[in-house]
Amino acid sequence: MTIRENLEQWEEDYLSPYAAKSKNSKGRLREETECDIRPVFQRDRDRIIHCKAFRRLKDKTQVFLTPEGDHYRTRLTHTLEVSQNARTIAKALKLNEELVEAIALGHDLGHTPFGHAGERALNRVCPLGFDHSVQSVRTVDRLEKNGHGLNLTYEVRDGILNHQTSGRPHTLEGKVVRLSDKIAYIHHDMDDAVRAGILRESDVPEEIRAVLGSTPGERLDCFIHDIVTNSMDQNDIIMSEQVGRAMRDIRQFMFDNVYKNPIAKSEEIKAEMLMETLYHHYMTHVDAMPEEFLRLLSEGEPREQVVCDYVGAMTDRFAIALYSDIFVPKSWQI
Questions:
Q1: Across residues 266-294, what is the average pLDDT?
Q2: What is the pTM of this model?
Q3: Fewest CB within 10 angstroms: 73, 80, 97, 298, which?
Q4: Distance separating alpha carbons of residues 254 and 248, to the nearest angstrom
């Protein structure tokens, strides 16, 4: 037996009967020769970590646009926190850790610069619409590796597509990531908001603190323990009614006091204008895009989609520099 086959047998012997098993994967978009060492979900995780879109997450906004401090979260650190939460839950429930890690590491690969402000801008100006979950799947299916994509398994692609609140993942591992994403951003966005002086811990309503705790660490511990306790030996990933209600309440509290806070979001109008301007510029100057995107056009992809692919893939820093280079006058020199 190969190392991969031994690992697949270990999954059969050890993991929960409700876990997704590597050898039972529904497969890839294109058939491939199996690796003799790594099961399929481990290969997917490795491909995501090594792809360009993953590296760009380090310079993309989570909540606070281009913050001055070194300790605010970026889209990359958010992704790593989602992955860690998901792995902790999956390990306790004997689910497939490599599948949850692959989904978690890939769930935001299609996110725009400037966080949800960039996403709103592209969704508004592009007639095809723009949703970062759909774009994340497009990134792994089509955009990476010069248009060949990463050729990931169905289970990873399904988890990436369905990671938002409205999603309905088809595996328990996908459901773990869907909840872990919420847990992560509630945890770290509160921490960042306190660091920024926008909130104090005492601002969280007492009825929420009574259930979840009074610090980010206490809330994180509460969420994870509640999911593990209520999902153990179940063919579902669930929370208790009390903690689930408190999660919805604190999430709404964050929307009211952070995500829509005029101080925290004071620069978002500028960011949206920048994104819209770049979109319209490349719609009329399509030849100015890099060769890899022109190749997509030559293969019949709609111009609106390809322009979104290019502008949406940018980092905050690159988008600002590009906008400045195109639209800000330069000093005249002899």
A1: 96
A2: 0.96
A3: 298
A4: 10
